[in-house]
Amino acid sequence: MFRTVFAVAAIALFAGAAIAQQDPIAARRALMKANGDQAKIGASMMKGETPFDLDKARKIFAAFEEAATKVPSLLPENSKTGGDTAADPKIWQNMDDVKARFAKFDADAKDALAKVSDLDSFKAAFGAIGKNDCGGCHEKYRIKKS
Amino acid sequence: MRRRTLTFGAAAALVVIVLVLWCLTIPATVPAAALPPHAPDVANGRTMFEIGGCTSCHATPADDPQKVERTKLGGGLALKSPFGTFYVPNISPDPADGIGAWSEADFVTALMKGTSRRGRHLFPAFPYTSYAHMTLNDARDLFAYLKTLPPVSGRVRRHDLGFPFNIRRLVGFWKLLFFHGAPFTPDPAQSAQLNRGAYLVNGPGHCAECHSPRNALGAIVESERFGGGPTPDGKGFVPNITPVGLQHWGDDNIAWSPKDIASFLADGMNPAGDYAGGGMAEVIRNTAELSAADREAIAAYIVSLPPRQGPKPPSKKKEPAGAAAR
To answer: Residue B272 and residue A135: Cβ atoms within 8 Å?
Structure first.
């Protein structure tokens, strides 16, 4: 049983890596979409529509951390167009700034993951990350097409 | 003899026609005599500054939009449009390079009639089509507030427009067709909050100027006002904010409530937990400075807009996965 699970997991891991190699646009969109799904949960807790849950809060920041570490390597030169990318060509003219932003996003997400304990600390962390990290990058480097 | 009379008649007719056209396009002004005595309310002027979004165009640009100094209105931003590129002027209180030497009448004339201090038409890239709906006192308060900001030296270069769009007099015709600068009249049948929201959105907020499609002459298509449309530089898309857009929004078909809108205007977070990008992020930096009551008024008005279909956002191009890797 374990061998099957291990085999499936290994295949999934390699398949994921292979897809990332072949289609960085799809891979980074998937990571960003996962971010968005988690952010939606965060928004709901921020607004008091769902009760605060520490596990859910941690999962949100873990997803942010994953995107922050993986997306920078999914921006090869040849992925400016093609697929359905909302990435602004400015990214490739400012790659140092883009990488610095992802590094900050990663640091902020790690910090939040370690420190979040209740609704207030969650609101502070989630709000700051959303506005500065998500918002800042999206304002400069994402083209809204719809 | 007859031919000379004909030629003379034709020339005279031409002169008359040109004179008539010239008169039709005389830039309107607000003379100083038309301004009753008014003690300016600088705090209200600041509110007008924030909802008017002056800084978003007139502040000296920085590489990172989040690092712009909002009170330094030295101009210089390049606005690409289908008619060429507009370079936003300096409206800091610098007496030589900004509006420091302007009178109140000069300012109100520019804001509400779209006429420059030298009596020439201003291009409607400056949204006086919306600002004209402001009250005279709000305009005067705004002027008083602008005068408190730091002077910034440096004149901005002239616009870079193609022929014939660079002929200012022709804007006179554009105004005849598209500029109906009537002041806002509150609707007695609606609540004070709704009237305030309607005033803020249609006047200083000038929301429709981005959130509407435009025709070939760059005027808003009235039947699709607030229905969304391409950004002026053609690269992005501004959403439909009538119920057609806001009641079936995003991947999950969310309906924005007034509370969603008001909180979005405060911190930029939309109901999907994503943060406003593109031009709207700039707007949020302004609306975040308003009172909660004003944001709620705006939200109440927005949800009350009549549903309007606007242009379709560009369809997503589907290319086979892996095409980029080739």
So the answer is: no
Pick from A67, A29, A61: nearest CA to A42: A61
pLDDT tens across B228-286, in order? 999 888 878 899 999 999 998 887 788 999 999 999 999 888 888 888 777 898 999 99
Instruction: State whether B275 and A138 contact (CB < 8 Å).
Output: yes
Number of domains in chain A: 1
* CATH architecture of the domain formed by B184-312: Orthogonal Bundle (1.10)
Residues of B in Cβ contact (< 8 Å) with A26: 321
State the complex-level ipTM.
0.74
Amino acid at the residue A43:
A
Q: Is residue A146 included in any domain, yes or no?
A: no
What is the CATH classification number for the domain harbouring A127?
1.20.120.10
CB pairs under 8 A between A and B: 102
Q: Identify whether A59 is part of a domain.
A: yes
Q: How far apart are CA B98 and CA B96, in angstroms?
A: 6
Q: Which of B64, B273, B323 sits opposite A40 (nearest CB)?
A: B273
Q: Which residue of B has its CA nearest to A23?
A: B322
Mean pLDDT of chain B: 91
- What is the per-residue pLDDT across B51-67, written as a single tens digit (0 to 9) for each? 999 999 999 998 888 88
Question: Reduced to 3 states, what is the DSSP secondary structure of residue B220?
Answer: strand
Structural domain that includes position A105: 2-141
How far is residue B83's CA from residue B49's CA, in Å, rounded to a whole number?
27
pTM, to two decimals: 0.86
Q: Which of B269, B283, B285 to mutate to test the interface with A (most CBs of A within 10 A)?
A: B269
**Rounded Cα–Cα distance for residues A46 and B263 (Å):** 11
Residues of B in contact with A131 (CB under 8 A): 267-269, 275
